[in-house]
Write a sequence for this structure.
């Protein structure tokens, strides 16, 4: 099956543009990030279909855990981990 692509133009906040400026291939980076988000969305739908329910408390807990993990890692280490994740 032939892969299709579509050129789009978007406006992003300055801090997002600064992050994108560090990427050699912005299209590939944005595609990877969106595919991860779409996968998470699909996983939530599958879990809900199986009877699991996402709660505000559960999401708040996950945000706290992530915030604590980010505090334990330097921004450089965090960026390195993100690059390794997104280059997969």
């Amino acid at each position: 099956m032939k892969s299709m692509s579509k050129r789009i133009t978007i406006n992003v906040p300055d801090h997002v543009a600064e992050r994108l400026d560090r990427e050699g291939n912005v299209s590939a980076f944005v595609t990877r990030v969106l595919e991860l988000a779409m996968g998470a969305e699909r996983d939530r739908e599958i879990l809900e279909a199986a009877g699991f329910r996402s709660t505000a408390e559960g999401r708040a807990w996950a945000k706290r855990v992530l915030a604590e993990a980010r505090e334990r890692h330097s921004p450089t280490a965090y960026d390195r981990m993100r690059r390794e994740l997104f280059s997969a």
